[in-house]
Write a structure and sequence with these properties.
The structure is a homotrimer of 140-residue chains. The first copy, chain A, is 25% helix and 36% strand. Chain A has 140 residues and is of the alpha+beta class. Chain A contains 3 helices and 8 strands. In chain A, β5 and β6 form a beta hairpin. In chain A, the strands form 2 sheets. In chain A, strands 1-8-3-5-6 form a 5-stranded antiparallel beta sheet, with helices on one face. The longest helix of chain A is centred in the middle third of the chain and has 14 residues. Chains in contact: A-B, A-C, B-C. At the A-B interface, β4, α2 and β5 of A face β3, α3 and β8 of B.
Chain lengths: 140, 140, 140
Amino acid sequence: MKTKTEYLTFNLPARMAFENITPKIAAIVRESGVTEGLVLCNAMHITASVFINDDESGLHEDYQKWLERLAPFDASPQRYAHNRTGEDNADAHLKRQVMGREVVVAITNGELDFGPWEQIFYGEFDGRRAKRVLVKVIGE
Amino acid sequence: MKTKTEYLTFNLPARMAFENITPKIAAIVRESGVTEGLVLCNAMHITASVFINDDESGLHEDYQKWLERLAPFDASPQRYAHNRTGEDNADAHLKRQVMGREVVVAITNGELDFGPWEQIFYGEFDGRRAKRVLVKVIGE
Amino acid sequence: MKTKTEYLTFNLPARMAFENITPKIAAIVRESGVTEGLVLCNAMHITASVFINDDESGLHEDYQKWLERLAPFDASPQRYAHNRTGEDNADAHLKRQVMGREVVVAITNGELDFGPWEQIFYGEFDGRRAKRVLVKVIGE
């Protein structure tokens, strides 16, 4: 069995933003030498996501508008009890649950085994500081 | 270490529909010869889901009604920027995030290690064409 | 390859409640002897979740309020078709989809490979009876 562990750092300027991290994950998989197995990619922070969807800017606008409607930003402790702690990002913890913490992707013949439009994204919901994504490859 | 990779194809007639794929996944696990390990099942398309819940038709109606309320179908580009591309399925990309892309299930003693009501479903949110599910077994 | 399988039982008194299960998962990982690999933790019941977020009581209040807004409890079969079966917990099946069934966590150097605030929770949405969480460790 082979394993490989890498940590990627992201520092997105906007409160809410998405970055396509597929090329970085694909490179780590190739470097691992694993030809059959799984790769786990997860946000190591609880106001961020790793998710798989389409690399289309209109869709990303839609995600932002939709998440803002489901869990609006509001720094006040009246709306969100979490903000009593001095934080202002309770909404980001909620948005991240909708989009998910992690993806697990199959590795087949040494490559990410993807459908035609699948791309891996880092999703930031609280922004403005560096956060990490863990990439763990396991297989043979 | 053993691995096995299979692709299942689904072509559901309705825009939104669910199909119980547990027997197919269980058969692949048995054929793999893996007795202890994990099986990843994921939609390979970004307007579809694989999820685990109850095989009860009333609940499936509830999921459909609820998802339609959270992310209504609307082909217009006024509501969804993604539909400026000529697509009409932005809502399906949103619905799929709520229901999830994938499940990872434990294999114990050669079988899916499930609670009493757990069943695996393929969830279609855009319908009317063939889509694939990837099944990756890893273990010993 | 090494694997280890454990089942944890929870019996939370409230309809909706969260319990931090990180110490129990960390202990199982240590007992497994796996130093590099993955651990899957999933609810074995379809009105419960395992998820990762912050151990902050205000945030947990926010999750409860937010989930109640997204999928309100209503025992009547008028609102939820699932409740025609005599069940009263259709809302719990919906809440669980938002919060997720499972998490997969990397094991590095024999420990859960976590960011600074990541904690694993059992989430109960229907309460008042014992339910199980499956923990499956796989690695070397």
